[in-house]
Design goal:
5 helices, about 15% strand, globular, Bac_GSPG_pilin, Pilin-like, Type II secretion system protein, N_methyl_site
């Protein structure tokens, strides 16, 4: 019996077809992978909302703050499923996995920026990731609430400075007020107060530091607990239909006191 064999031309044709099919499928697989990461990120934010709710119950309804050497995420320890020793929290330095700790729900899966901060020496590439930030609030001793920092948690810009916090019941439009958003950079580490709260200008001026699609679309946690994937510019629409700005976001989704 004659045995039929592939010719070289036929083999090359098959390889070419497989290559074409792979080139068609890879973009779809990449999009599916990114959608899965975005879904995980949304889940993280929803779990963070549960931690907020538990914290409210024990703290008269106030959001966590940066206080002394404790960042707002440090103050959520125990409510967020972690069990970090107090001695490792009360340092204002990054937390490391060497003692069995992990970033847990604070790390967006699309945040692949290497962290480096570990204290005064500025070294330590294993510092745990902090992908999420509370909206920042800043008040002047005379000027009152600044129009470009009308968020959840922050400080009094005076001497002496003072940590400021917001009571959830004082936010009149919780379904239209952002509490927490995504931002990644090498010096934003879990356990560190620095940059754990961010002003809007940092967010807007560094779109490459925003996971997923940057200003085009990222995840936002609202005070009422729901999470939305939104274009940044849609978050700047005022309640009267106008548009806010980086220097004045009154009555936008970034304003906790509208």
């Amino acid at each position: 019996m004659d045995k039929k064999k592939f010719t070289l031309i036929e083999l090359l044709v098959v390889v070419a077809i497989i290559g074409i099919l792979a080139s068609l499928l890879l973009p779809s697989l990449s999009k599916a992978r990114e959608k899965a990461k975005m879904a995980t990120c949304k889940s993280n934010l929803k779990q963070l909302q549960i931690a907020y709710q538990l914290y409210f119950d024990d703290n008269d309804g106030y959001f966590p703050i940066n206080s002394g050497s404790m960042s707002w995420s440090d103050n959520l320890n125990g409510y967020d499923g972690r069990n970090v020793a107090y001695a490792d929290l009360n340092t204002n330095a990054a937390i490391f996995p060497t003692d069995g700790y992990s970033a847990g729900l604070y790390a967006c899966p699309s945040d692949d920026v290497q962290r480096y901060f570990s204290g005064a020496d500025g070294t330590g590439p294993q510092a745990l990731t902090l992908s999420y930030a509370l909206t920042r609030q800043v008040r002047g001793s005379v000027a009152g609430l600044y129009n470009n920092n009308r968020g959840i948690s922050g400080f009094l810009n005076a001497t002496p400075s003072e940590a400021l916090k917001t009571k959830v019941s004082d936010i009149l439009l919780p379904s239209q007020t952002i509490s927490t958003f995504e931002y990644m950079s090498w010096d934003r580490c879990l356990g560190r107060s620095h940059l754990s709260q961010l002003e809007l200008s940092s967010f807007f001026n560094n779109p490459t530091n925003i996971p997923h699609e940057g200003l085009d679309k990222s995840n936002y946690l609202f005070v009422d607990g729901h999470v939305e994937s939104l274009n940044f510019f849609s978050t700047m629409v005022r309640t009267d239909g106008g548009s806010g700005s980086i220097s004045d976001h009154q009555n936008t989704m970034w304003d906790a006191y509208k």
